[in-house]
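Subject: Nucleotide-binding protein-like

B.,
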Amino acid sequence: MNRFLRHFTLGATRGFAAQSGKEPHVQNLKIEGVNDIIAVASGKGGVGKSTTAVNLAVSLAKKCQLKIGLLDADVYGPSIPIMMKLHGKPEVSADKKMIPIENYGVKCMSMGSLVAESEALVWRGPMVMKALEQMTRGVDWGILDILVVDMPPGTGDAQISISQRLQLSGALIVSTPQDVALMDARRGVKMFTKVNVPILGIMENMSYFKCPNCCEPYYIFGKGGAQKTADEMGMKFLGEMPLEVGIRSGSDEALLKI
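Prediction pasted inline below.
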């Protein structure tokens, strides 16, 4: 995580968009008060994308003393309220904007805070996009250095629309080491490239299991897959995150391992 933090802190002070070398997005797409918007994405679910987004956001807020927001854009499967230990619903300001719920120094917005936990959302694409629009520009984020967006898995309409409607400064790709996950990660990279969103790098999650008794690493899902993919696609490799009981239990119990 420390390698992550150095990269993102440097980006926040210089401006990710300026570093990218890409032409800036249309100015009116920018969310008022938000300096940079970073998407944490994957081509498929189950690789630890939300866990990565949560720990990155909290670490940037706590360790780097940055003003951070966290948007849970996974409308159908919101998990941020559990991991961020959010309670209640957002209040509404005088100008009819929702006020994000704050915990661990991070301002959070999630569909999971707006609907009952047991309720299943049976929505078509236009309704999803309207909800995402409300959770971005219909929110009083205040002044933020970085808004971290926990993207929905896949490369469909929602992902493309978020990339085009928000002035994304860059995307962080999360994958596990095996070929099946990396194949989908490559699709995610290509999607962001097509909509001119810079790739900040790829992070390998669940790289190995660290035995709590002997501390020996066991490469359950293979070894070095994300590093190889980064080299082949000309991306930065941002590091490995092992399978650790503390990360799993901390996320489930909303006690983050920072």
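Confidence is low (pLDDT under 50) at residues 20-28.

T.
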